[in-house]
Each structure stands twice: as structure tokens, then as C-alpha cells.
Task: inverse folding
């Protein structure tokens, strides 16, 4: 009857809390005493609630007592089953009056409303931190205690959060509990299923709203980075904490994102590349990589900018482009103040300070700070050149090289100078041009006083003093101080003439020869 009368006879003698049931008061008192009498015999996890211990034990036993009566789905927690049932009914009774957001659970709506009110009811009792969600407070408290009670029995991975352990376990079990009701797709995480469902419905209510309103309710407390997606913020925070929760069970490698771990795991497998391009024979271990590769043949650019006519074949390219509109560079290096529009760019930059070279060649001792450099190196072992230009037959081992090459046919110059009308096909050319405005040349040769605006240019110059020729031909004894000279030399062996005049069909092995031909023959220009 107290649920109707509102009577709460059980009072806390340390604060204003009161409860209708004694068991609720007992649980509350544990917050004051810190008492956690219930302990897991497997990993030492302790909790103030017996029901929480029962849920925790299921992470070890794999027990899933909550069954769906409409399909084979089962769950270790009743709340997870309730969320799943909504997939069958489609019912989302709870709606936000501010923006129309709908959800299956009342608690989700309460959390969502805080994105409008900025309310943060969960307070840390050890510092000034407050959060809109209890799970965020729990994550924060782990920084004070260092406690990681949740452990994976397969590989020893430990975490402060039960939900993180549940997600991690799926890397071992292959479980994908989130099913699409319109096709055979399934996913290990709900947000991945949500992204997939948008392909069927075209519906992206929250992201679309964010584009119109500019609403980015999720903010990083370290650097002010804001985003429309909570999952993006979680990933961003790892740039500050250094957390790498995804562990390889075959070596010491760990990663901040699951996609990076998936890429790494292919190094341990047999090297099988089941996905093949029917156009040119390119093979890969990942279906998504094949989809990206096919766009080099089809010219498909599905990622559109909503502020101009720009479109891209890859989402990462669109993200880079969007930064030209906003000027936003939320990722900052704590060592030197360098800022970047993308987290991956900051990660690469940080290696200039740490000297870290995580990408290892499995055929020799070579290691590098960037995956693209490893891909280039591996091509020396395999000789593979999967990327083909359908205009002139030019082939290359690197996708980015093909993108750059295609601009010789299209005339595309996407890199614009913000101080004059200059534009360039490559970012390196734009950087060189910008130095003409500033006149700055910070890099100096200690041998002869030569100065330049670019560190790579100084490195190349130093070889005139040292005689170093690091670029070796694998078919003869030729070596070169510059990579482009080696490429020119290789055409002696292959007979390849990738540079073609669109005016008369003239072909040549060297880009400089084509430039000279175009200038003298077609434009009449005399340098």
C-alpha cells in the first residue's frame, strides 16, 4: 500500500534518505559504510547487493536464465531481455517532448532528458566530478580506487565495468545477440545494429537532428571535444587515458578500438584472403576493405558533405573534409600543443614523441609508426600491386597512390590555399606553397647552411652529404637517394609508361617528361 500512499517509514540516520522498504534502506546504508559483504569466489569481486553478485557470477558461468518466448535469444539479465523484446514489438512508448526522441525504456528517456537540461545528479564523494549517468560515475570512481573487479576467464582481461566485460566476452564467444528483423544481419553491440537498421529505414533521427541544430551534448571534460554520439566520446576519452581494452589473446598487442584488434588478429591467422575483386584480382581479409576497393573501379562516392558538393569514397575522407568547414581540431598533443581534426592523426603524431613503431613486418625486422608505411613495405616482399587505374593501366601497391594518380586525369586539386587562389592535388604541395606566404624555413643543414620549410626536404638534402641511398631496386644493384628516382628507374625493368597525354596519346615513364611534352607540344609554352 505504501506505493499508493507514498509512506516511507524507514529513515537514514546519516542523511535525508527515506524508503518504503527496509531492504532499500539497507542497500542505501552501504553507501555510507562502504560495506560490500557479497564476494565472488572466482575473481574476488565484492558488492553491497546479493542480486548484483548473482548477476556477476553469470559472467563466469555463462548462464542466461532470461529467455525470449518469440525467438532463441536469452540473456543473463532481465533488463537485457526487456530491451530485446522491443525488437519484436517495435514499441517505444517513451518520447522526449523536446526533440521527439523515442525509447523502449523509461530510464533511457530520463538519461536522454539530461542532454537537454544538462543535469548531473550523480556526484563523486571524493572530488567535484558529477555525471548525468550512474555508469559514468562508476567509471570515474575506478580512477580513485583503481579497482577492476570484472575479469575475463579466457585471457585475464580485467575492467572496472561489468558492461565492458560483457562486450569483451563476445570477442571470445563470437556471440552476436542483436538481430536485424529485416535480414540475417546480427551484431555484438546494439549501436552497431542501430547503424545497420538505418540502411533499411533511412532513419537517423538523432544524427539528423544534430546536423540541423548543431547539438553535440556529449563533451570531453579534458579538452572540450564535443560530439553528437556517446560512443564517439567513449572512444575519444581513450586518447587521454591511454586505455586499450581490446587485448590480443596470442601476443601482447592491445588496442583502443575493436576494429584495430580485428585487423591485428589477421596477422595470426593463415593469411587467407577470401574476398577478391572480380575486376583486377585484388584480395583482402576483410569484406569492408573489398567494398572500399571496388569504389576505385566504380567511382562511387557515397559519403556526401551537407555543406557543399564534396563527396568521398570513404567516411574518413569526408570527416577530414568537414574539418575544412568547421576548423574544429579537438585532438591536442599534451607534449607540444599540436592539434588535429582526427584522433588517428593525433595518434600518429604522438609516435614522433614516443618513438613507438607498432606495425611490424612478419617477414623481416622492419617496423614503422604508420600502417600505410607497413603496407608499402610488404609490397616489396610480395610484389603485389592491386590498385589499377582504368584510364591508363597504371598499377600501384598503395590505394592512396592511386587516388593521387587519378588526379592527373581529372585535374582535381582539392587542397586550397586560404591566402590566395592556389590549389594543389596533394597536401604536401599545398604545405610547400604555404611557406611562400610565411617565408619561414626552420630546418637547417649543419654541413652547408641550407635551409628549408620542410623536415622531409632536409632529410633528402642530407643525403647529398652522406651519400646515403636507401631506396634499393630488387631487380638489380641500382639504389637512389629519393623514392621518385627509384620509381623512374623501375620502369626500365617493366617497360611501364603510366603517364599519358589526353591530347595526343603520347606516353612516358616519367611525369616530368609528360609535363615537358604538354608544355612544348600542346600549349606552346617555352620555359
Result:
Amino acid at each position: 500500500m505504501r506505493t499508493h500512499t507514498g509512506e516511507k517509514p524507514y529513515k537514514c540516520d546519516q542523511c535525508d534518505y527515506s524508503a518504503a522498504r527496509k531492504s532499500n534502506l539497507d542497500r542505501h546504508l552501504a553507501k555510507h559504510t562502504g560495506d560490500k559483504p557479497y564476494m565472488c569466489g572466482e575473481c574476488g569481486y565484492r558488492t553491497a547487493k546479493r542480486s548484483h553478485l548473482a548477476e556477476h557470477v553469470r559472467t563466469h558461468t555463462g548462464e542466461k536464465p532470461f529467455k525470449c518466448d518469440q525467438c532463441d535469444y536469452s540473456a543473463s539479465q532481465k533488463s537485457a531481455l526487456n530491451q530485446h523484446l522491443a525488437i519484436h514489438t517495435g514499441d517505444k512508448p517513451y518520447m522526449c517532448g523536446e526533440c521527439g526522441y523515442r525509447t523502449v525504456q523509461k530510464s533511457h528517456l530520463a538519461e536522454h532528458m539530461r542532454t537537454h537540461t544538462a543535469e548531473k545528479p550523480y556526484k563523486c564523494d571524493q572530488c567535484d566530478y558529477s555525471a548525468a549517468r550512474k555508469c559514468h560515475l562508476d567509471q570515474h570512481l575506478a580512477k580513485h580506487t583503481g579497482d577492476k573487479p570484472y575479469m575475463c576467464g579466457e585471457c585475464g582481461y580485467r575492467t572496472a565495468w561489468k558492461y565492458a566485460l560483457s562486450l569483451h566476452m563476445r570477442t571470445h564467444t563470437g556471440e552476436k545477440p542483436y538481430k536485424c528483423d529485416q535480414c540475417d544481419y546480427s551484431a555484438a553491440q546494439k549501436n552497431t545494429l542501430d547503424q545497420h537498421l538505418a540502411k533499411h529505414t533511412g532513419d537517423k533521427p538523432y544524427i539528423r537532428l544534430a546536423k540541423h541544430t548543431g547539438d553535440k551534448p556529449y563533451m570531453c571534460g579534458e579538452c572540450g571535444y564535443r560530439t553528437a554520439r556517446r560512443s564517439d566520446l567513449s572512444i575519444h576519452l581513450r586518447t587521454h587515458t591511454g586505455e586499450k581494452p581490446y587485448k590480443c589473446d596470442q601476443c601482447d598487442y592491445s588496442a583502443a578500438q575493436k576494429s584495430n584488434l580485428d585487423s591485428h588478429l589477421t596477422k595470426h591467422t593463415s593469411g587467407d584472403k577470401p574476398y577478391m575483386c572480380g575486376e583486377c584480382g585484388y584480395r583482402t581479409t576483410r569484406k569492408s576493405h573489398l567494398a572500399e576497393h571496388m569504389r576505385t573501379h566504380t567511382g562511387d562516392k557515397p559519403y556526401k558533405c551537407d555543406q557543399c558538393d564534396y563527396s568521398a569514397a570513404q567516411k574518413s575522407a569526408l570527416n577530414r573534409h568537414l574539418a575544412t568547414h568547421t576548423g574544429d581540431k579537438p585532438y591536442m598533443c599534451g607534449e607540444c600543443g599540436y592539434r588535429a581534426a582526427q584522433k588517428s592523426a593525433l595518434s600518429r603524431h604522438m609516435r614522433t614523441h614516443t618513438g613507438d613503431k607498432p606495425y611490424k613486418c612478419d617477414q623481416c625486422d622492419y617496423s614503422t609508426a604508420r600502417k600505410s608505411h607497413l603496407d608499402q613495405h610488404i609490397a616489396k616482399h610480395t610484389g603485389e600491386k592491386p590498385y589499377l587505374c582504368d584510364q591508363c593501366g597504371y598499377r600501384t601497391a598503395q590505394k592512396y597512390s592511386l587516388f593521387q594518380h587519378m588526379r592527373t586525369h581529372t585535374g582535381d586539386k582539392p587542397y586550397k590555399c586560404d591566402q590566395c587562389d592556389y590549389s594543389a592535388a596533394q597536401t604536401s604541395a599545398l604545405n610547400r606553397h604555404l611557406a611562400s606566404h610565411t617565408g619561414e624555413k626552420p630546418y637547417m643543414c649543419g654541413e652547408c647552411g641550407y635551409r628549408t620549410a620542410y623536415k622531409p626536404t632536409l632529410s633528402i638534402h642530407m643525403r647529398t652529404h652522406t651519400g646515403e641511398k636507401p631506396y634499393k631496386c630488387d631487380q638489380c644493384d641500382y639504389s637512389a637517394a629519393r623514392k621518385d628516382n627509384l620509381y623512374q628507374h623501375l620502369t626500365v625493368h617493366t617497360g611501364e609508361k603510366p603517364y599519358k597525354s589526353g591530347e595526343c596519346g603520347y606516353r612516358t615513364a616519367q611525369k616530368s617528361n609528360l609535363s615537358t611534352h604538354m608544355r612544348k607540344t600542346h600549349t606552346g609554352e617555352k620555359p
